[in-house]
Specification:
heterodimer; A: five-stranded mixed β-sheet; B: mainly beta; seven-stranded mixed β-sheet; 14 strands; about 10% helix; globular
Chain lengths: ~260, ~230
């Protein structure tokens, strides 16, 4: 099942994908179908009762580590993000004025489904609710070597698109057998396979849950493969993972104001 | 249900910590800031996240994370964001919901190069004061005292901040939003030797400041085992 969270007709709704449309789960409209173009897509996450933990991985694909001139890490290189940086499918991400290098990162995002503490690798995937696609933008001009990657690079407003779907874990028996790709204005710029992760999903859950209790709705963004390029205002960036979804995002400049328009 | 917890304040948003925001620690680090891997002094505020699994109400046991023998005490004040003032999109001191006394525990670490997930985000590593204190608090004059087993260890003086509260809010607001309920911690000070007060299993640590209820925790090896 592919699940979405959308705004439509003045309210937020849970919906599922049915025959290329969204079928609403809201009781008043249960069964009603709406078109993808007629809704605002939100990050496909149910609200949680405590602040959401959003872990992200750096250098988790050997080719990307090489691209950035780093040796692959011996233990996961993790950092954290705040929920305020998340936006949904078909949204706009702001490129600050005057920056020289802002790039997307197509990532498999793991959404936790059960409380996880001291979970072992063998059973780790049982704790996953589902998977979605994240685009973990970085603005490299702001990199500083203090708690790197620092929050000014990685925790900016609008810079973590997520979606469109939360795909049930049951539908993804092997999260390490998925192809990833990114296109910019239709041109293929990034390609990879989740089986090239240095630390796979199960290993990451074991690693984190050994010292921090993860709760339902917490996220792990699992890193990105080789092939990141600069993106400019107006660029349409689609990060896609086989069987999970294609997450569309448009780069905007800070000055575009309310006149934001996508090329699509 | 534990009734004392039902009345205990807890952060409803993301909690951010600030590194190197006391003049003494900044000065002690200054000679190393040009060296590898840092290569330059930090320009923007250096922040980190304290995840929800770290939130620990005052009065409980803080359990040593796997592999840690001691914890460093981090007495600080957290600014709790309120609704922004009309016409003002950025948080400001006048728009805070209040502030809270916190013990921002960490596993001692001498490298500030990589994000401090294992050292700062293990379960229970944010001791949370029992109540929000409404503004205005005269933050620049505030002193926080640290005692371990009743013995004075440190006095933290908020007059010694590199970025005072208003400036820190403005500089963080330059690159990310702080939503109502989010918490921005002002930073933790070091001792004269650059370290922080350390607590081992069995130690009881009390953080206190005028106008705030104290934050008290006892360090334990495991739940139910204090020494």
């Amino acid at each position: 099942m592919k699940r979405a969270r959308i705004a439509w007709a003045g309210a937020v709704h849970n919906a599922v994908e049915k025959d290329g449309q969204l079928e609403l789960l809201t009781p008043a409209f249960a069964g009603r179908r709406v078109n993808f173009d007629d809704v605002v897509w939100l990050p496909p996450l149910a609200p949680v009762s405590r602040p959401r933990t959003i872990l992200a991985l750096g250098l988790n694909y050997a080719d990307h580590a090489k691209e950035l001139e780093f040796k692959p890490p011996v233990e996961p290189l993790a950092f954290l993000k705040g929920e305020a940086s998340l936006i949904g499918h078909r949204a706009f991400t702001v490129r600050p004025d005057g920056v020289k290098f802002m790039h997307y990162e197509c990532e498999l995002a793991v959404v936790m489904g059960r409380e996880a503490k001291n979970v072992k690798k063998a059973t780790a995937l049982d704790f996953v609710a589902g998977y979605t696609v994240a685009n973990d933008y970085a603005i490299r001009d702001y990199l500083e070597n203090w708690y790197r990657p620092n929050l000014r690079v990685k925790n900016r407003d609008t810079c973590t698109p997520l979606g469109p779907w939360l795909v049930d874990a049951a539908d993804i028996p092997d999260p390490q057998a998925l192809a990833l790709k990114t296109t910019v204005n239709g041109q293929l710029t990034q390609q990879g396979q989740t089986n090239d992760m240095i630390f796979d999903v199960a290993t990451l859950i074991e690693y984190f849950s050994a010292f921090m209790t993860l709760m339902p709705g917490d996220l792990i963004l699992t890193g990105t493969p080789d092939g990141v390029v600069d993106c400019l205002p107006g660029d349409v960036v689609v990060t896609e993972i086989d069987g999970i979804g294609a997450l569309l995002n448009t780069i905007a400049s800070a000055q575009m104001g309310s006149g934001l328009t996508s090329r699509n | 249900m534990n009734t004392h917890l039902a009345h205990h304040w807890s952060p409803s948003g993301t909690v951010y910590g600030t590194l190197l925001n006391f003049q003494r620690e900044h000065a002690l680090w200054a000679p190393r800031m040009q060296e590898s891997p840092y290569k330059a002094p930090p320009q923007a505020p250096v922040l980190y996240v304290k995840t929800a699994n770290t939130f620990l109400p005052s009065g409980g046991l803080v359990v040593l994370p796997p592999g840690a023998d001691v914890l460093a005490v981090g007495a600080t004040i957290g600014l709790v964001m309120g609704e922004p003032l009309p016409g003002c999109s950025r948080p400001s001191l006048s728009a805070l919901a209040g502030c809270v006394l916190l013990n921002d525990w960490c596993v001692p670490h001498d490298s500030y190069f990589r994000p401090p997930v294992k050292t700062r985000c293990a379960d229970g590593l944010l001791g949370v004061g029992p109540a929000l204190v409404r503004m205005p608090v005269a933050l620049d004059a505030l002193q926080i005292e640290v005692r371990i087993n009743g013995v004075w260890k440190q006095t933290v003086t908020l007059a010694d901040l590199v970025r005072p509260a208003a400036q820190l809010l403005a500089d963080v607001g330059e690159f990310m939003i702080l939503l109502p309920g989010d918490v921005l911690m002002l930073g933790t000070d070091c001792l004269e030797d650059g370290g922080r007060p350390l607590a081992k299993a069995g130690d009881t640590v009390e953080i206190s400041a005028a106008g705030f209820k104290p934050v008290v925790h006892t360090v334990a090896k495991t739940l139910g085992e204090t020494a």
